[in-house]
UniProtKB/TrEMBL annotation:
This is Probable peptidoglycan glycosyltransferase FtsW. The chain crosses the membrane at residues 46-68, 88-104, 116-136, 152-169, 181-200, 229-248, 306-336, 348-369, 381-402. It catalyses: [GlcNAc-(1->4)-Mur2Ac(oyl-L-Ala-gamma-D-Glu-L-Lys-D-Ala-D-Ala)](n)-di-trans,octa-cis-undecaprenyl diphosphate + beta-D-GlcNAc-(1->4)-Mur2Ac(oyl-L-Ala-gamma-D-Glu-L-Lys-D-Ala-D-Ala)-di-trans,octa-cis-undecaprenyl diphosphate = [GlcNAc-(1->4)-Mur2Ac(oyl-L-Ala-gamma-D-Glu-L-Lys-D-Ala-D-Ala)](n+1)-di-trans,octa-cis-undecaprenyl diphosphate + di-trans,octa-cis-undecaprenyl diphosphate + H(+). NCBIfam families: ftsW (TIGR02614). Residues 1-36 are annotated as: Disordered.
């Protein structure tokens, strides 16, 4: 009935006033598009760009130091630079993508919102299909897709995070006051998050599901939903986590050995106990760059999820603090760009990207230091993973694209 009325309204000839109003709207839209094209030619935010390059460069140096014992062992001494060279290639590709995306008018990203969301769902379903030859299983988790016979592989959850950022930014920016209603501001986004987080969670990839939910929740909050919904969602998530861990007994041992890794230091608590030994052996100043002892096959995942432990061992408390301050500066600068963005769409996308980096960094360092239960989550710009690094740098390009059109700030 509603569609019939709309169709009839479209067939009805427009009055002179309606035609003039439509022309004015079209003219304003063309003026905004022209203004956006002109503003997109502005300079990128140099402090943010420098911080990204610093973290990427330091991350490559630490990856070289942390990975060469494993690479030497796994290649029978033929290529101790295996992980570093692969990561370096993806870093170059990622920086090129960042610069390219940074030159694009970010309004064009609106057209990617729905296709990217649909693509992420399809890829996550492919991972979940039992016996799929494209799905790759490691450490009892199927999180990757790859081409058989090649080393090319990626995590669809990385695509899902980016899809949430762009789709939520596009959709929320158009709703304004309707974001405070349940029908328009809560329900559609909760459905999307439940579907994506559910598909990621069954891989199983608990930390990935947390990142999807966290980024989506923050963007909804910034978009205008009531704080009460956020509190209710946190309580529901806590109850669900308790049910999954302590009732369904999923990953319960991780919680038990998180509280006391020394109870089984050679078994289930080995990862965390070795991580704590690695961090503690660094002391205040560290043992020196490249001089880690724990990376010689004592600490598992030393070049991946637990690379920050090697950072602490080699650079000490001071070096690790400097790196954490660089991450903090990047996150704060990102939020500053979001505050000065030209419109809600740009602001929301930057908030999503920066929240993703901040939340992932916090979770990784929390896991490595024993603040949080052990789960598989990488450290942005540092952990080994070429496609993940490329996507992270591409996301930084989105922030740079928005920064080109920032509102002018008062000098002094």
């Amino acid at each position: 009935m509603v569609q019939q009325k709309r169709a009839a309204a479209r067939r009805r000839p427009l009055s002179r006033e309606e035609a003039l109003a439509r022309q004015e709207r079209q003219q304003r839209r063309r003026e905004k598009e022209e203004e956006s094209r002109e503003l997109a030619k502005g300079p990128i935010d140099l402090p943010f760009f420098i911080l990204v390059l610093l973290l990427t460069g330091i991350g490559l140096v630490m990856l070289l130091s942390a990975s060469f014992p494993s690479a030497y062992y796994e290649t029978d001494g033929q290529n101790p630079l295996y992980y570093f060279t692969r990561q370096g290639v993806f870093a170059i590709m990622g920086v090129a993508a960042m610069l390219f995306i940074g030159k694009i008018n970010y309004q064009r990203f609106r057209g990617l919102a729905k296709p990217l969301l649909y693509l992420s769902v399809i890829l996550l379903i492919l991972v979940a299909i039992p016996g799929n030859p494209l799905a790759i299983t490691r450490n009892n988790a199927t999180r990757w897709l790859g081409i058989p016979g090649t080393s090319l592989q990626f995590q669809p959850s990385e695509i899902a995070k980016l899809a949430v950022i762009i789709y939520f930014g596009d959709s929320i920016s158009k709703k304004k006051d309707r974001m405070r209603t349940f029908r328009y501001g809560i329900l559609p986004y909760v459905i999307i998050l439940v579907v994506l987080a559910g598909l990621v969670g069954i891989e199983p990839h608990l930390s990935g599901a947390i990142l999807v939910l966290g980024v989506g929740a923050v963007m909804m909050l910034v978009g205008g939903i009531h704080w009460g919904w956020v509190g209710g969602a946190i309580a529901a998530a806590g109850g669900l986590l308790y049910f999954v861990v302590f009732v369904l007994d999923y990953n319960r041992s991780r919680f038990e050995y998180w509280l006391n890794p020394w109870a089984d230091a050679q078994g289930s608590g080995y990862q965390l106990s070795q991580s704590l030994l690695t961090i503690g052996s660094g002391g205040l100043l560290g043992v020196g760059l490249g001089k880690s002892r724990q990376k010689f096959l004592y600490l598992p995942e030393e070049h991946n999820d637990f690379i920050f432990a090697i950072v602490c061992e080699e650079l000490g408390l001071i070096g690790a603090t400097v790196i954490m301050l660089l991450f903090a500066a990047l996150i704060l600068r990102g939020f500053w760009i979001a505050l000065h963005a030209r419109d809600r769409f740009g602001s929301l996308m930057v908030v999503g990207v920066v929240t993703l980096v901040g939340l992932q960094t916090f979770l990784n360092i929390g896991v490595v230091t024993g603040l949080l239960p052990t789960t598989g989550i990488s450290l942005p710009f540092f952990s080994y993973g070429g496609t993940a690094l490329s996507i992270q740098l591409a996301e930084m390009g989105i922030v740079l694209s928005v920064s080109r059109q920032m509102k002018p700030t008062k000098a002094g």
